[in-house]
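Bumping with the actual sequence this time:
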Amino acid sequence: MKYKKYSIIIIAVLVGPIVYVWSCNSSGRKIIDNGIGFKAKLSSYQLFKGEMAALKPNDGVEIFELASTLFTDYAEKLRLIKLPKGKQMVLNGTGLPIFPEGTMIAKTFYYSKVAKKGRKIIETRLLILHQSKWNVATFRWNEAQDEANLIADGADLPIDFKGLDGKRRKISYHIPARQECGSCHRQNDVIIPIGPKARNLNFRVERGGENINQLIYLMQRKVIKKRKIDSLIHLPNDHDNSVPVAQRARAYMDINCAHCHQAGGFAGNTTLNLDYGTDLERTGIRFNKSNIVIRTNQMGEFHMPKLGTTVIDSEGVALIRKYISGLR
C-alpha cells in the first residue's frame, strides 16, 4: 500500500507537466461568430478627429488606461471606448462593468520610434456589443497611415524599432487572425473584453492637467454611472517598484495570463487559476512553479503567453522569477 501511494505520486509528478503542456496548447473549438458585418474601413467608425494618424479621439470617444497592461512585443497602445449617446456603463464590483448595448471598445497598437519612419501604427482591434454579444474585428493600418482596412486572416510584419526602454529591436510583429482572438477573449463559450475591469481602471491618471482617479473622471464624463468607489480594490502597476513583488507579479499574471488561466478560460482545464482575486493557495502557482518559469522564458510551441508575443518579455520573466523564488 505504501509503495502504491509513492507510485501514484511519482506518476503525477512525471505526467502532470505533460498534461499541463497539452491542455494549454490544445486548440479548442472556434467561438468567433460575429453577429454583425464589420465595415471595410476603420474611418467609417469615426473614432478619430482630423488626420487618423494623429490618433486624436473624436467627440464622444473616451481614452481609458489600465494600471497593468498586457505585454505585446513592446507595442504601445491607445485604448478608446465609445458608448451610444445618453448611455452609461455600470460598475459591477471589481470585474468588468455592465456595458450598454452598442458599446465599442478599440485598441490601437503602434511603435513610436520605428527606424527611418518615426511612429508607425500597426493595427486597431474593435469589440462591438450587439444584441448582448461581443463581436470582434481587426483592422490593419496602411503604409500611408491614413486608413486601416478590415482583415480576417492576420499578418506578420517586420518591425525595426526603439522601445520605451531605449533598446533597439527587430521583430516580426503578428497581427492575429480573427479566430485567434477567441483564444484570449473567451469566457466559457462567449467573447468578452479583457482589460477594462473596474480594478484595472481604479487608479490615478492625468486628465487636463489634473491628477484624478480614472473611475471618478469617467463618472464626471458620464461614461460610468456615479457610485462610491471607496470599497473597490485596485490592480497595482506591475512596473511600479514601490509595490511589493508579490502584488506586482500577481498583477502581471492577471493581465497577461488570467484571461486563459481561470475558470471558463481557454486554459481553464489546467491546474492554474491566475486571477488576481484568487487566493494564492487556490491558484496552483506553487504546484506549477517550474512550468511557469520555463514556459515564460522560452519561445516556440510551448511559450506562454500563447498568443500576442513573438519575443520574451525579459522584465516580466524576471519579476515572475523573483516572486516564485520567494515562495515557501
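The C-alpha cells above came from a reply further down the thread. Residues 1-29 have pLDDT under 50 and may be disordered.
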